[in-house]
Amino acid sequence: MSMTDTVEYNGITLHKQSEYVWEITQTGEMRSPARVFASEKLLSEIGDDDTLQQLVNATHLPGITKYAICMPDGHQGYGFPVGGVGAMDTTDGCISPGAVGFDINCGVRMMRTNLSYSDVEGREKALVNRLFETIPSGLGGGGVISGDRKTVEAILTDGMKWALANGYATPDDLSHCEDGGWRPDAAPEHVSEKAKNRGEKQIGSLGSGNHFLEVQRVTDIYRDDVAAAFGLQPEQIVVLIHCGSRGLGHQICSDYVRKIEKGHPELLAALPDKELAAAPAGSELATAYYGAMCAAINFAWVNRQVIMHQTRQVFAEIFDQSPQALEMELLYDVAHNIAKKEVHTVNGRDRELYVHRKGATRAFPAGRKEVPEAYRTVGQPIIIPGSMGTGSYILRGGENSLALSFGSTAHGAGRVMSRTQAKKQFWGETVRDELEETQHVYVKAQSGATVAEEAPGVYKDVDEVVRVSDALGIGDTVARTFPVCNIKG
Q: Fewest CB within a 10 Å sphere: which of 128, 302, 325, 484?
């Protein structure tokens, strides 16, 4: 079909506001309009499932400000769409676990090295095998650290400060992580015993699904000055780590969805989908969930940090040099599936908001105080993973992000196919062999089913997702990378 200024999907009408900006008008019980940032191609994919209905449902949340937003990689999620952003007032609004997600702080980090692609050629299999042996992955399973209750509670409280004190991090790692790798609002006392039990066994583990560790090479530079500030150059080897808070975060979300359903039935009854269950700002449950969520955020940062520590040891072994000699330094770590209290200017007035980013990335521009000092003059790094066969991107926070998206952009390619569909359409061993034979990408996973679920054909076109972000000025393209080898659960 050809696009006009108005289009309809599944009974929901969208009006084109400007290039790549589509709006769903506020009607009925909606508390705000909704907006979708997408090209015509991406919008047709977003409209193919329940994403738009979930976005409309999200506008019913109390205190939602300006509009509910769907990023170009958006797809259907639990209650609130993946790729969704919603900012709720911290005074008369709410906080919603469903608008954060089950895998709290499922984020990505990128580590630089001084190796070039030619240094790695011929060693790919040795590298992927050793990484797979050294870094635990898969559903359930153990972690690098066999923690006890005291260890878990220290991690929940101190985040990456714990990793620094225990030899898993350097001071530069903390200064190059979102929020310094520590949420001071963390409240481990609001994390259930069951969640802590799950966390004890999974410190330093990838997990399963779309989580992975990927060695990549930089193939393209688009903004020379910003790439230089990020320490990136063509053919450089970098490492991308994507995982979250594991069973601990999932349990926290499950716990609080149930608690909120029971504790605030009147608010639940006013929402079109019980999966959006929300606690009113200022309530005991809102405070408790926020503290527990921040604790899970800290856990996820430590989880990725320990995995990065293990990666440093593997590279040192394979290349017979110390991590320091290889200049294995954290470029940046960004969090997804998160709600944070942030101050944004709305209609000329500064307001504190719970900014929910579910499958979305913070994208603050140059000058914002939350951006690490090393990047404050160029903007916050953004890391957007693609699929195993398409490559990934590094962006920087765009000048329009605060006005358009509460300082947010996309977080990945976004699925177009469910895991069940993927396993029917793709055979994991075939996908793995084709990647190695045709693109020289080496993949090692716990099962062929995992590879099938993450086949390149399962995802949207990451090039298109990034192009829209860049065109809107919410995340500016800096560099592109392409896989060398990949391990996953």
A: 325
